[in-house]
Protein: GTPase Era
Amino acid sequence: MSDTRAGFIALIGEPNAGKSTLLNRMVGAKVSIVTHKVQTTRARIRGVAMEGQSQLVFVDTPGLFQPRRRLDRAMVAAAWGGAADADVVVLMIEAHRGMSDGVKAILDGLGDLGDRRIALAINKIDKVKSETLLALTQAMNEAFAFEKTFMISAEKGHGCDTLRAWLAQAVPLGPWLYPEDQLSDLPMRMIAAEMTREKLTLRLHQELPYQLTVETENWEERKDGSCKIDQLVYVMRDGHKGIVLGNKGETIKAVGQAARAELEEFLGRKVHLFLQVKVRPNWLEESERYDEMGLNFKDGNS
Structure:
């Protein structure tokens, strides 16, 4: 009988709860987009971590929120789908925000997940006093019978080793699902697109980041070991294109430089990155765009 373990772990919670930060810390590399803006994770991004004889496959789901548009509805469906498919579910909440209306809505949905092992991770514990933390822990466990509660700081790493050790024994016995050195099962084309989208999100403000998407159109391996990546940035109107390009193309140039540097670090080789901005007014209603993001277009139906 094998003593190896492997399983899927879904990180769920409200937007900006720190799920992507925790995923990246657990995996030890950047596989999920992390910004200060909410709703940035669109697809379910899997990161693979090894802990002893256990392989932990993390699913970083989009934040759960009240959906308004087709894209929102598809993201929320993907989040609950990721939880339903997982062996272990970790609900992440922010210590300083406590039991918000959004958290209460998620608690109501946890009962539909059947016999999943469900743990609570209270994140950003450095932002509140210990008595506040204890009161929140008690209130959350009275609202739902969590198997285990962890107090963590995903950004600083506090409590993350304890959570990881528990997850290692919580996943089922069985063979590993991926090669030991594999960080993610996402195609590199999608990871590259996400990295560029992160840089755009950090650089731009207001609503625009949620009205653009990035696709890797072409990936060419070169004889010298480098690679050439062509990406398209889709925006919804001409005014948006001007914002993304910036004065004399300065914004898109800075975004390209930052994305290329991160890609080179991630891939460990030279990258030639070329970005092109295109106006596509109805991209939010095109099924092909959802396929590229790893979302189900039909899930966006109201």
Summary: Residues 144 and 190 are 36 Å apart (CA to CA). Residues 5-170 form a domain with the Rossmann fold fold (CATH 3.40.50.300).
